[in-house]
Amino acid sequence: MDYKYKGKEKEYQKKYQKIYRNKKGNKLRIKRQKKIYNKKYYFTYPAQRRNSITTWQQIGIKLKPDEDWFSIYDYYITEPECPNCGVEFGEGVKRNLDHDHDTGYIREGLLCHRCNLLRH
Ligand SMILES: [Zn+2]
What we know:
Blueprint: H1 9-42, H2 45-58, H3 69-78, E1 95-99, E2 106-112, H4 113-119
Antiparallel strand pairs: 1-2
The chain binds zinc ion.
């Protein structure tokens, strides 16, 4: 215990508790900020691109030598409608990357969910 708190145990305890509480509060605040940051980062272009590409790789999509993931992603997110049926992408109409299940190569490219199901 600090020398200046000799005989004032209660006061010391109070001060210590205050410091402890602040430290705890700071930790929580940092945790919360990190969470918010992660959430914000999740919706950024590079994070979304990373996510999509990882998913495609996980489901077995492979690239031909003249293709690259970043260009495919840009094409994937900028195309406004399904090239096959013309439906506009948006909520309820999801984008799908059509690929050959045997070779893993991209076949039609972008398709809406419905067209993609019909292709299988
Ligand atoms: Zn379609």
